[in-house]
Structure formats: C-alpha cells, structure tokens
User: Fold this.
Amino acid sequence: MIINHPILGPRDAAEFVYKGDASLINRPDWQADDAAERFHEYGYLRDNSAGLHRELWFHEQGDRSWLVVTRDTTTHEITKVELARDVARAEGRSR
Amino acid sequence: MTGKNRLNGGMIDRSTSFGFTFDGVSYRGCAGDTLASALLANGVRLMGRSFKYHRPRGPMTAGSEEPNAIVELRSGARKEPNTRATTAELFDGLVANSQNRWPSLKWDAMAINDLFSPFLTAGFYYKTFMWPKAFWEKLYEPMIRRAAGLGTLSHDPDPDNYDKGYLHCDLLIIGAGPAGLAAALTAGEAGARVILADEDFVLGGRLIADTGTLADEDGATWAGKTVARLQAMPNVRVLSRSTVIGAFDHGIYGMVERVSDHLLEPAPGKPRQILWRVYSKRAILAAGATERPIVFENNDRPGIMLASAMRAYANRWAVSTGSAIAVFTNNDDGHRTAADLVSKGVKTTVIDTRPDAPETTDYETLSGATVTNTQGRLGLAAIEVTLSSGTTRSLTVDGLGVSGGWNPNVHLTCHQRGRPQWDENLAAFVPGGTLPSGLSVAGAASGAFSTHRALQTGQAAAVEALGDLGLKASNPDLPKAEDAPIRVTPFWHVTGAKRAWVDQQNDVTAKDIKLAHQENFRSVEHLKRYTTLGMATDQGKTSNIAGLAIMADVAGKQIPEVGTTIFRPPYTPVAMGVLAGRSRDKTFRPVRKTPSHYWAEEQGAVFVEVGMWMRAQWFPQPGETHWRQSVDREVLQTRKSVGVCDCTTLGKIDVQGTDAAEFLNKVYANGFAKLPVGKTRYGLMLREDGIVMDDGTAARLAEDHFVVTTTTANAVPVYRHMEFVRQCLFPDLDVQLISTTEAWAQYAVAGPNSRKLLQKIVDPEFDISNEGFPFMACGEITVCGGLRARLFRISFSGELAFEIAVPTRYGDALMRRLMEEGKEFDVVPYGLEALGVMRIEKGHAAGNELNGTTTANNLGMGRMVSKAKDSIGSKLSERPGLNEADALKLVGLKPVNPDDKVVAGAHLMTKGTPVDAAHDQGYITSACFSPNLGFHIGLGYLKSGDTRIGEIIRLVSPLTGVDHEVEVVSAHFVDPEGERLRA
Amino acid sequence: MHDLSPLTPLGNAEPSIESIGEVTLEEVTDVALASVAARLGREDDTRLALATLIEVDAPAPSRHAGSTIRAFWTGPDQWMVEAPLETHEDLAKMLSNEIGSAASITEQTDAWCRFDLVGNDLFRALELLCPADTADWSGGEVQRCSIEHLGCFVLCRDPSTVSILGPRSAAGSLHHALVTACHAAF
Assistant:
C-alpha cells in the first residue's frame, strides 16, 4: 500500500507500523465518575467496519509522525491522511 | 549446422554456436535459442515424464505457459528443478536433465502407473491412503512424493546472490508485444517516465513469432527498431527477462528480473535475479494471449503442441517441429500456422472442426473433422481423424498443432480480486470486475487480438494514462498492420474421449472432471482442488478453460454459469532465493555490535544474539572447560571486587522539554515530577490495560532534560509508544524525544571496588564518593583528562555499582582503560550470563518476569502505581480481576535438597494436591545456579506468594520429569536490605 | 586533553575508503551531529536561530542546506545539524548556547555511521537499497528510509555525492549492503 503522508507525500506502507483504530486518540478522563467503564470501552471495544476505517499508523522508517489514515477495509482505498497530532488537537486533546 | 530440424531464417545467431547437454548427451544450439528450441532443432522432442502416469511428454508451448517440458537446469549447487525448457535461454555449457523418470527418460519404470490409470483417477490419494491414518505421514506421503514428483533439489546452499530493488515510474507497461510497444512509444514521446517490462529475452511478443508486416517491414524488424527507439529515450526504461509477477495495492507491482539466468555463472558481484518493487502511478497490462488446446484422445504425445508454438518455433527459432504436420483447429488462427509452415516447405494438413472452414490450395483442409486418437510410443507417429462424414482416416504425421482459440492473459487483473467475464464473441474470458487501481488493459490481453487492434488499443491506453498523469500525448503514427476478424467456433473437447488430457502438467483427464462432477465436486473451486486442475508450476494457463468447458458440458450449463477461478500472484514461478534477496545466511538481518565488541572478540568472548545485538555471554579463561566455570568466576569476582559489563544495548531515550517531567508522569506508573536534578529513579511503564510494558530508569540531567532507559528488547516499541502518547494523547505537552541508544557506550561497573576503579579514571574535579555521589545519583562528568561522560549510580547486580557512558567512538578505549586500571583489583569483564545470575540473586525482574501477563501487583510493586496522577495503565490496573487476593506474586524459590535444580518453566504445586491445571499455584520464570549461595535458585510467580514465605511446595515439570520440594523465600537472595548498593 | 583513541564505526583506527568500479565508498567520521527539535510554540524561534547558524533558511521537509554548518530536516520542526568534528566536537553544547531554550538539543555524533558514495550514476546503486524516488534529485534532498531493515538517512549532496547515515552499531551490516549494491550496480 501507499500512504500519502501529509508532509512527505506518497510513502510505502512498509515504512509504517500499524497500531489500530484511531479512536485510541480519545482516551477517557481518568477522573470521570465512570472512568473504569470508559477505560474498559476504550481499551477493548472497537467497531469492526467493512468500509471506511480511521486508523493509526506510525511512520517509523520516516519522520516519526503518527498519522490518522482513513482506509476502506474492503478495497484498501485510502481517502484521507492526517497528522494524528492535528487530529488529536481538533478532537480536544491538549495536555 | 545446429540440428537436423533447422529451417532457414529466424532470429537465432548462427554465428554463435553453443554446446549443451541434455540427459548427458551433447548437442549444439545457437545464441537466441531456448533449451526447447535447441532440442527440437536437434530432433529431441521427448523432454519429460508426466506427473502421475509418467507419460512421455514434449513441449506443448513456446513460452512461460509450458506444462510439460519441465527440466532440471545446471548441476551441483546451482541445480534448479522444475524449470521450463521453453523459456530457458540457451548458453554455452548448459547442463540440463529431464526429471520424474527412472532409470531413464526413454524407459521409465514408473510408466507402469499409466497401466494402472483406472485406479489413479481424481481423488485417488484421498480415497486410497486414508487408512490406517498413521501410515500417511511415514509411508504413503513419502512414497507418493517419490513416484509423483517434480525435480530434486541440490541440498547445497545456492552460491549466487539475489537482490531486491525499487523502481518508480509514471507508467508501467507489462508486455512488449505490439500493444505494449505502441503504448511505450506514445507515453515515452510524451515525456512520461515509463518502464516497459517483458518476460522474454527478445522483445516484440507475437511480432517476433509470427509473419506479417507492419507498414512495409516485417513485424520483427519493426519491433526491433521500436525497442531501439525506446531504449534511446532517457525517460524510458526497457527491461527484458523481467516478469511482472503480481499487482498489489496502489500501483505497486512485483517484478523479477533474471539478470544472469542466461549465463553459465553470474559475473562477479552481479546478482542472479532481482526482485523489483515497482511503484507506478498508472499501469497498462499488455501481456498478450495464450493459445488453448483442444482435448481429444491421447492428446499428450511429444510432437503435439499448440499451433502458435509451432509457428513460433518455425518463424523465430527456425525449427521445424515435424516433417509432416497436421493442424487441428476451431478457428482461423490455426490456418495462419498452416500457411507459415507451408511457406517454410513443411507438408501440412488442416483439420478444422468447422464445417465452413476456409479453403485454400496451399494445403489440404478437412472441414468439420476432428482428431479422435493418436499413435506413437515416445512421440507422435500418426493421428486418427474422424471426417465430417463420420468415417475415419489415418494420417501419418509427426507433428500436430492444436488451436482451440486464444485466452487473454488476464492474470494480473485478478490480483485484486477482479473476476474475468465471458466474452461470447471471443469464446474467452476477458478482464472484468474491479481491476487493480490504475491498471488498464490493452492488446490481446483485453481481447483485441489483431495486430492492428493491439497497436491501437495500446496507444489508446497510453493516451488515457497520460491524461490521468496530466501529460499531453503526441500520438505517434502507428504502422498499418493486419486486422483479421476473429472467427472462432467454440470447440473444447472431442466427445467420448476418455484418456484425453485437460491439464497435462497434473495429469488431469476429461474423465477426472466428469468423475469430480459425479462425486459432487461441482463448484470451480472444488473441481480445482479435487482434481488438482490448474495447479502446479503452470497454474493452468493452458488447461483451465478446457476444464471449465467440460464441467459446463457435463453439468448442462454454459461456461459463464460455471464461473472461473481467479489468479493469484505470482504470474510464473519465482525462485525462493529472489524472495529472500540479500537476507540470507549471516546477512539474514543486520548485526548490531556493542562498542566493546572488538575488544571482547580479542578476549575470546562467547557471543549470543539478543535481538540484533551480539552480546558477550561470558569470557572464558584458560583452563575453563564449562561455561558455568566462567560465569561463576565472573559473578564471584564481581561481588568480591569489581566487574565491568557492556550495557550499551539498553535503549536510551532523550526526553526534553518544559513538560518533560509531566510527560514521564504520564508514561510511567510512578511519579517523576519531584525527582531532583542529578537523581535517577526506577520507572515502571504500563500498557493501557494495566499490564507491565517495560521498566527502566529515568535520570534527570536538568529540569527539562531526562535520559530514560528501556530494556534492550523494548527500545523500539517503547519509543513508538512514547511518541504515541506525545502526539496523539497529550499533543500540547512541550516534550521532545529522540533515541540516543547508539550515541553512548555505556558500561556497568559493579562490585565493592567499583568506586575505587572509577576514581582512577574520573577526572578529579568530580566527587564520586558516597556523600558526593550517593545511590541513584547521576551527572555529567569528564574522564581520562577531559572526555565528556555521564555517570549513573544505579545497580542491577545489587552491588555498589555505577553505569558510565562516553561517546560511542571512545567505548573501545574506555573498556581497555578500565581493564588496565582495574588490574590492581583483579577486575573481570562479565557477560550476559553473569549479569543474569546476579540479577536473579538480587531478585530484579527482567524480560522473563515482564512476560506480557504481568501486573505491577504481580511484581509486588502495586503500590508504585500512583493514584494521585493520570498515567497510562493506572485505571485498568485497578480492575478486580488483576487484584484478586490470591494473585500471583514474585517470590524466590530454593530447593529443599541443595542438590536439586530449579527449572525455569516448571510449575509450582501445593504439597498433597493433584498435579493438574486446576491446582496450579504458579511457575518459575528465571532460574540459575547461585555461586554465592552454592545451590540453584529461582524466581517465580506464586499465588499469594508474599504471604507464603517459608512454605515448602512442589516444583513440578512433567515434561522433563522434575518433581521435588522447594522453599518459598524472598526474591532477594543477596543483600536483602540493600546495604551494598548504598555503600 | 584526554588520551582515549576513537574507533570508527567499522571498528578501525582510520575510516575506510574503497573503490568499486568508478564509485568511491567512504566511511565519514569527521562530522559532528546534534538534533534540534523546536520546543512547543518556539518553532519560529528555532527556525530563525537555525538559519543564523547555517546562514540560509532552515531546510524545509525532505531538504538539507548550509555550508560549513549544515542542517537536514528529520521530522516536523526537527532537524539534524552537521558540523566539522574538529572544530565542533561538543556541537550539542554549542547549539544549546546558540539556540537557548527555543529547542531541545541532543548529541547525535556517535549515534550514526556515515558512508559517502561518490561517482556517477549513484542512483543505480540506491535503487537496489531503498525506495527513495531519486529521479528528480539534484542535490539538497534527504529521505529517511529503511535499508536492509536499518533506519537510515539518505542525503543527496549533489548528483555525484550521496551520504548514507545509519545506526552506528550496525555499520558493518550497512557497509556490506552498500558494497553488495555497488558491485551489483557498477
């Protein structure tokens, strides 16, 4: 596969390490009342979609950016690639 | 003269004569020959024995689709079995042998299988060798493999190099026949970066195998000139002997270039083959088409081949495939073969299944006739023709060309699960379904069979691709070429034929397919697996469609209703060597050497590979005959005086930034915010699920600067994890990370005299006394008169110990200096084994304990997981299941009988309980002989272990027959109070 | 001055140099390295400081620039600085003084081994080593990529000079890969 890196352009997927569902960005608040339950969901429950899937890839043999890649699991077509850091900030993560 | 069957003309170089042998007999051929063409020129047409029935076989084709002429090439370590004689390029000194015969090709004892053929039908193995079950592996399978075999391996290491490489292009064109050449010309002139690849060693496809003109020159001449034009373009790369074997995601193609297969030996330093990974923006498949046979009785004798192959042998290789030839056809293309043969002076008769076959005065045509049987023991001698009138006629011929129409080479269009579609007009499957992204198809591969249409569709595909690439096409003028209409009347098999071969490579007959249907293996996928139709090295290139047609016939269906199997990579067989590339033997993967590696080699160290690192395992001294002697000595001497160990392999990560401490608070379960500058702290890193990921230390060199260590094995995953935490979870923390593992040579200096030794090399302005540099201190110092160094007072061995780091290039010199300066203390270097013994004696957890199931609670470190802050894994580590009252706890174990061993992996059982999983109490993770205690010791996890100190339990390993009593003790066998490391 | 003698990444006292066909393969040991990663919110300050240091703009992604002191891009807001070892042995400290608190500086001199390929048609060897698309390379490009499982930086100094930086501990393996590729290509 080719991942079109937002900074570096098209790169072979072999340069990347796959992590999984991009929902891993949305780590729950550890002080929430239902933190235990939410962390369980965060850790173990994933959608298994046949179709578009947002997922995390690490450019280990490149610039060490984590990317959020939107890929169709049925065709491998990649429709969007973003820097995970930008996504994380846009989704409200900070420090 | 290079053979009695040589004709005039052709594309062989008669001035370059090559000597070669086949089954020990010497022959001569020409440059430009294949092994098959040279043998045929010499009158040799028996080239192999069939897979199951050991029937005599000769070449059926003139290309990579060959099912029959499968031979062993070369000898000794370079021997290569199962190679197609039809593609093997002849060279001087080639040694070739037939295979799957004994004692000889002409008299093969296993040919008796042919007589037993009624019993050897499809599913024979499944039905016959089912019982007794135990016989399968030991008796039946080896026996069958010997009888029904392909070639044999040399069992010697391949002496040649194989390479891998990467190519980039705008447009990859697969196949250099008329369509591919037209496409390449169009794209090349438009300035696109083009790669034109063809599996053959001469480019041109059918242009070099057929007669016919392009404009006013013959096809081969036009092809040669066009290739030369393309080669002169800097933006076009023309690759012959290069097979595109697979179409992968997003325009990536696999391609094998046979760099040196046509040479006796590769030139020095040159690879035999290269596996290219081709990155293309667009691709055009112009792989041509393959002629298909008709199935009739005894259609497999040497001398019977595809009509187009006969034409290729005559035109390209100037080889006559018989003195009197018949062509059996259902379409006009068969007549083309006849015309070419007649023009070469070969007596030819055409048997056309169509009642309205075209008539000519050049040769006799039998319309509406079929071939119903053949004769000839080791090669064709005569055929039986059933005329339209129903009467039979015998023809004495030694060559029979068969033409059942053409199949587009759709293979690569299937590699992303595209499913070919049936084209009624062509009576063939054409590319269909979803093609690999960016791939279009041109020429005969798309069903455009005439040369004119091939040129046109090739150019059109290139123009379309150029449009996608944003390039303007110049549309070079294409020559005028033949544009014969396709006239084919489907005719797959002669009714009533029994011993009629559908798949010649796997010996699948028409009868087998009928049997499969009868036994309800009716889906194409079942048919394939039950009969083995279309398997093996040719992957059914000549047999699949006939098989489908017969299945459709017996099932009373149409071919499209039966469906078709799709093709997977590789297009043609690939040698394992080229898949491995350079990754073999000692270069299988990179070797990482520690800074003291060369010094350790000089000491005669025994090395062990840890990850990719070569680490000294122990340093044998003269007189030591057993590794334990070396290890015990290293341990005792370190604990008595001082030892030095290279610990560079531990991962080191530089963590900087105003939020560095806050960041470490997130990634470690324990707290780092309050760690003072100049101090080091043990850190326990959890996965988000609460399981221990790694442990190490973090040394605070400045308010905003830490150096973190990881275990050797986890250096890469921990760095990756930390970047995930930094970029994805806490993107607004000001923290920067970089690995410094390689930058520093780091040595552990351990033992009561370690400080004294270091004081000899640390520059005097730095106070490393216990007061000036206490336990867990760290700092930047200089050594040996001004070399920058880092010093950490940390201990894995449990002794007074330091770790000292200098820039890696000085690591070798520092080790030598430590050994020199340490002589007065009888310093020893110690290796990985001694390190392991000492950490077990001290009760320090390592990889064996951090095994992916371990929690902080298991390690007795539950209280380290801070509840006052958010850290990765802290929440899920609180789950009740991980905190049961009887959770496993790390303990020490020592044998009740001091002579007994403690065995890693053995299980722990309460005395008096049955030895079964239900009563399992835990297991040993690490064990060793403790030279300090004089008996074996172990670390292990035991249910409620922390409350069972002093209990005598059973150590059991049913696998190794171990069963004895051990006492539960503290994991800290040595210096439990930690007085030594604070000394 | 200390009295310890350095070893080259290949384990010798002097850097190795060899000719393969028309191409020279040279072990380079006289360059100091330090990484510069901008602190959060200090990206422009870092870029400016870097520009002052290398006397041209801080290199854009996949580029390198400078003269005596050079920098190449390694990641978002991160660079590696190269300087002559003889005059900049303690490059990291020097950079810390120059750039101050705007960036995190880490010594990298001995983290890497470096081999320079000098000669014509170098890309013919590179295509056997890494997936970098070198067609448009004319000098000034850098790409981090994997060579025989090793994470490396490939820098095109000019079309006839390519530097390959790889992990120092695996210098022998990287060198073997380069030699093999050069023999295959030239």
Chain C has two domains: 17-29+111-185, 31-109. The longest helix of chain C spans residues 171-185. The first strand of chain C starts at residue 17 and ends at 20.
